[in-house]
TrEMBL record:
InterPro entries for this protein: DNA_glycosylase, Endonuclease3_FeS-loop_motif, HhH-GPD_domain, HhH_base_excis_C, MIG/MutY, MutY_C, NUDIX_hydrolase-like_dom_sf
Cofactor(s) this protein cannot do without: [4Fe-4S] cluster
Alphabetical UniProt keywords: 4Fe-4S, DNA damage, DNA repair, Glycosidase, Hydrolase, Iron, Iron-sulfur, Metal-binding
UniProt superkingdom: Bacteria
Pfam families: EndIII_4Fe-2S, HhH-GPD, NUDIX_4
Record's protein name: Adenine DNA glycosylase
Role description: Adenine glycosylase active on G-A mispairs. MutY also corrects error-prone DNA synthesis past GO lesions which are due to the oxidatively damaged form of guanine: 7,8-dihydro-8-oxoguanine (8-oxo-dGTP).
Ranges where the HhH-GPD domain occurs: 34-176
Length: 327
DNA sequence: AACTCGTGGGC
DNA sequence: TGCCCAAGAGT
């Protein structure tokens, strides 16, 4: 049996029931954006929450970007929220669904993978989507090294129909059987001719990435029940989200960034990002309200209830959670 | 072409 | 625990 037929046959009997399968084009699109670099299990609650707030394309297109950030908060990679909002407006103005790969990939936040899989699932046109799962399966099965080889093979093994099911079949196989660590080869429908299973191919080792630490300071100023809060419009990291006044980040530990005698250190917080570790010192800067509010002048006094209505990053929520202890 | 961009699952 | 890495895209 052909490679693609084995995948299709396995998928028919083993597919996962996921909330976006058999959904509208808008729902499938939303799921694909949320799933970029994010596990299915993490996405599911966010997916439902998002649809509750923005049930269809036009409600999203007509919303404000801040509302989108509010619903997206905690999911990470916030440029996705920004691009989704833009794409919704373009798509909504178009008045119909994109008709092919070129129209999909022209949209902000839609790259080669997302454009391919939407073309396959929604249009049933041939398109070789390559994500982490599919790359891993093809590399193992055919013993491939470079991404160039993977792309060629992916095109060559495409079926002649059922492109959506075939692609999702590969994804499910990658997520459930052909996992990165300890794949379940005994349950795999294509183990017989797999070069990895046969032991004739092994993945090349990756250089391990050493995560550097960056240091900074967060300043909490309290007035009655409110904390001085600012929206990040400057740095790309956590852009568009709200938080508390944050110093520039440095490679070395440093004394307080603003030149005032802050003596009331309340604690530290460590937060792990993809490419670095952030360590912040948290200050009670209430005695320096003037300094802080003039340096971060575009802020607001927000109480707990008001902050709940805005998009805060997980990092800032972590700090906020312990506010009562610290202040 | 590397870097940047979040957060949490899972082992 | 610390570490890899997840349905990648933009620059």
């Amino acid at each position: 049996m052909k490679f693609s037929d084995q995948i299709l046959s396995w998928y028919q009997h083993n597919k996962r029931e996921l909330p976006w399968r058999k959904g509208t084009s808008y729902q499938v699109f939303l799921s694909e954006v949320m799933l970029q670099q994010t596990q299915v299990k993490t996405v599911i609650p966010f997916f439902h929450r998002f649809l509750e707030r923005f049930p269809n394309l036009s409600t999203l297109a007509n919303s404000s970007l801040d509302e989108v950030y509010q619903v997206w908060q905690g999911l990470g990679y916030y440029h996705r929220a920004r691009n989704m909002h833009k794409t919704a407006q373009i798509w909504s103005a178009l008045g119909r669904d994109p008709r092919n790969y070129a129209e999909w990939i022209a949209l902000p936040g839609v790259g080669p993978y997302t454009a391919s899989i939407l073309t396959a699932i929604l249009l049933e046109h041939p398109a070789a989507a390559i994500d982490g799962n599919i790359k891993r399966i093809l590399q193992r099965y055919f013993g491939l090294e470079t991404i160039k080889e993977v792309k060629m093979v992916a095109e060559n093994v495409l079926p002649s129909k059922n492109y959506g099911n075939y692609t999702q079949g590969l994804m499910d196989l990658g997520a459930m059987i052909c996992t990165p660590k300890t794949p379940k080869c005994s349950m795999c429908p294509i183990a017989e001719f797999c070069k990895f299973k046969q032991g004739t191919w092994m993945p090349s080792k990756k250089a391990k990435n050493l995560k550097s630490v960056r240091y900074g300071h967060v300043y909490l100023c309290k007035k009655e029940d409110a904390l001085w809060s600012v929206k990040n419009t400057e740095s790309k990291l956590l852009k568009g989200l709200w938080g508390f006044p944050l110093s520039d980040l440095k490679e070395e530990e440093q004394s307080s960034y603003i030149e005032v005698p802050l003596t009331c250190l309340k604690g530290t917080v460590r937060h792990v990002f993809t490419h670095f570790i952030l360590e912040l010192r948290i200050w009670n800067a209430t005695s320096r309200i003037e300094d802080v509010t003039s340096k971060w002048s575009n802020g607001k006094w927000l109480d707990f209830q008001q902050r709940k209505e805005l998009g805060f990053s997980r990092l800032m929520r972590k700090i906020e959670e312990q506010e009562n202890i610290w202040i």
